[in-house]
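Figure 3 (text version): structure tokens given as input.
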């Protein structure tokens, strides 16, 4: 230590009488006729000063280690998770179903008219009582993956958990994080108006026992990574089959007619066949025409998507180039099914 060196200099160094010298390592002024009291005071000052500097440096290093670096990493991770969540949010079309015209974002209330009655989408804003603000990430995943609410009740399949169950846990967490960052609304959810025999949630449980199998999307080893990515987008996030596949009498998707069109789509609309069948589907569309439709909603004849498909295309416009190409590859590889969609 510097102060030890200073003492050694003071006791062993021979200097000329009354001539001041300074030790370069200690900055303590030494005289031959030194004053013990002055030396003690000086050394005490030096000890106090060095201890203060040492303590400050250690404290600063500790604070940097504990807070700024960790905080920066967490902030960077949060920003990445939010960006990913927003991407999933837009592709999945959450705002389309959970926002009414001129209504608050995700505040619910949109009417979905079906052969079984009218379903009203709930408030999924971060409001703690009117929305899902009190839900944990685990409860959020449970609702999408299993179709079960935090209170244990079963959702009706008008909520497309039948497709969302395929979304990966990482994407669900990102989606949850993003939704929780949005503005909250205290708008109360509107009760469903259903046929009398569907007013008990036990019917949804029975339906799930018959037709629903939970599980994340599984890669198909025989297909390319690009095809698998396109399949994940279509089957899970964008849930294309929920509208483009016809349903049986109990409202379950007819798997043998996947993407072949639906005469009883949302709001009683005709939903077209999007398999590569050249006569009734999109088999005669060029790659560029399919790309233009997914990016801009433009049909080969120059018209634009309308009705319930319009907001869907607004969501798909957010696909990055790689995902857009993957979706095109998947759609063009579907088995062609001849099905003219008519009332």
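Below: residues designed for each position.
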């Amino acid at each position: 230590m510097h102060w030890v060196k200073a003492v050694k200099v003071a006791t062993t160094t021979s200097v000329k009488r009354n001539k001041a010298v300074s030790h370069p390592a200690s900055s303590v002024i030494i005289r031959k006729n030194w004053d013990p009291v002055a030396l003690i005071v000086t050394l005490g000052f030096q000890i106090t000063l060095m201890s203060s500097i040492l303590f400050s440096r250690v404290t600063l290093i500790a604070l940097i280690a504990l807070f700024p670096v960790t905080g920066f990493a967490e902030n960077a991770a949060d920003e990445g998770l939010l960006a990913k969540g927003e991407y999933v949010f837009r592709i999945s079309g959450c705002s389309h179903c959970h926002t009414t015209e001129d209504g608050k974002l995700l505040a619910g209330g949109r009417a979905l008219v079906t052969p079984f009655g009218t379903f009203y989408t709930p408030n999924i804003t971060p409001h703690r009582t009117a929305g899902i603000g009190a839900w944990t990430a685990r409860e959020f995943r449970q609702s999408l993956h299993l179709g079960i609410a935090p209170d244990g009740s079963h959702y009706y399949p008008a909520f497309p958990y039948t497709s969302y169950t395929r979304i990966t846990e990482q994407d669900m967490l990102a989606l949850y994080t993003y939704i929780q960052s949005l503005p909250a609304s205290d708008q109360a959810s509107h009760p469903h108006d259903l046929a009398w025999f569907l007013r008990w949630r036990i019917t949804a449980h029975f339906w799930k026992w018959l037709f629903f199998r939970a599980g994340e999307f599984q890669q198909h080893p025989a297909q390319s990574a690009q095809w698998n990515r396109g399949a994940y987008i279509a089957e899970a996030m964008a849930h294309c089959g929920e509208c483009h596949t016809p349903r049986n009498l109990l409202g379950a998707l007819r798997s043998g007619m996947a993407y072949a069109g639906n005469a009883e789509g949302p709001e009683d609309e005709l939903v077209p066949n999007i398999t590569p069948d050249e006569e009734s589907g999109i088999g005669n569309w060029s790659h560029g025409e399919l790309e233009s439709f997914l990016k801009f909603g433009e049909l080969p004849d120059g018209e634009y998507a309308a009705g319930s498909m319009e907001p869907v295309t607004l969501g798909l416009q957010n696909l990055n180039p790689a995902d857009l190409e993957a979706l095109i590859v998947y759609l063009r590889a579907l088995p062609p099914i001849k099905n003219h969609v008519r009332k």
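Residues 36-66 form the longest helix (31 residues).
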